[in-house]
Amino acid sequence: MDIKSVPQDNSETYANMKKAIYAADENGRMQTVGSTGWDVEEIATQTALEEIEKSIQDAYEEVKAGEKSPLYYHMYDARMDLLVLAQSTGFFQWTIKRHFRPEVFRKLSEKKLLAYCDVLGKTVDEIKTVPKDRDE
Amino acid sequence: MNSFEHTHHAHCESGVVSSMLRHHGMHLSEPMVFGLANALNFAYIPFVKIGGMPLIAYRSMPKSIIRNIRKNLKIEMKMETFSSKEKGEKRLDELLEEGRIVGAQSSVYWLEYFPKEIRFHFNAHNLLIYGRNGDEYAISDPVFDKSVTCSRASLTKARFAKGVMAPKGLLYYPVSVPKENNLDAVIAKNIKKTAKTMLNTPVPIAGLRGMRYLAKAILKLDSKEKKYARLFLGHIVRMQEEIGTGGAGFRFMYASFLQEASERFCNDPVLAEASKLMLSVGDEWREFALMIAKSIKSKKPIDYRAISEKLMHISENEAKVYRKMLEFKAKN
What we know:
heterodimer, A: 434 Repressor (Amino-terminal Domain), B: six-stranded antiparallel β-sheet
């Protein structure tokens, strides 16, 4: 890629950051150039973010409807899924799935709650409920 | 605080190592570090999942740059991991107190100075810590254009994130850096090594074989759910382009390495040619990403065959670069 082709698309997903890219000048000499974004990358990132946002919103509604425990929402809100939460806590996936049941979650020991709090970055009070309104 | 100066780099691990060595009087550009560490690679590992998607990497395993540079340049480098957060915090403070600059592995998600848009659970990020003011750390994150600060709480959380490739608080720093190195010999050796690794990978999931394997997997998306197929394709691009990874970016960086190497060997024409070829392979990777982005956005059915063929084509052209690299003979 030559320097002039380095995309400068001011991508929202760059949040005003710049990324260094190696490109060739008119004499073919390579050096780093700061890029403000590339639409192609932004589309890929946005697709992933939309998917995450949808999981969080779906989870939020299921918790509100009493079908799932707040843990289910907080997992997605921390951009995790069952696999990552299991790897992070060391709990089995089936154990965590049980904790998604509101009646099981309510009786959970302080120790287990703290394990979730630690990997999700929440306090015990926060993890027991979901926010009243969620702004994205 | 020490006299460390921040530099903006294309990639985290090679950037940290380049900055760290420069601070210790060894001037190696980021592409040179990347090239000498044999960092260029490709892997498609369907049975290792990240966020529900298979692992796709455009470079060697995390930490391999640190390890290979240490070995190839005979640098005495300490690498320490910790059994608890408290021990890890304490050790970092001690090292900074001694005036050292310290490399650290971390999660991206828990680093507060990262924009929310790109905070994902990726545990193999690298950054350099060069000072502390109370509970604020001065950090040189190579993929940021300026140095940043980070609170103790956020940094500790990021250093001790759990899960795949958990950093376990990893800290690394050179103890002694050799004054003399026969750099030319190391360059020649590693150019050959990279070319051979890419051409003759013993396992089907890495090197050029890994690319062809992924190309076949793209063809199979036709029979999968549409939504999954879109996410899968998007994932390939994200792994290729997003900050902290950079697939085409690695090809451009390697082209820069080959150029620098050519200059060291009296403008060696073989390496100069290989550099040009690699530069155009990088462009093709970007065309590939563009092709995918267009098809994800479009309402029309996705042409999996065309995307798959493009990737096959790239693997053939990359093979040409590696064969060219094998023609290189050091003349001294």
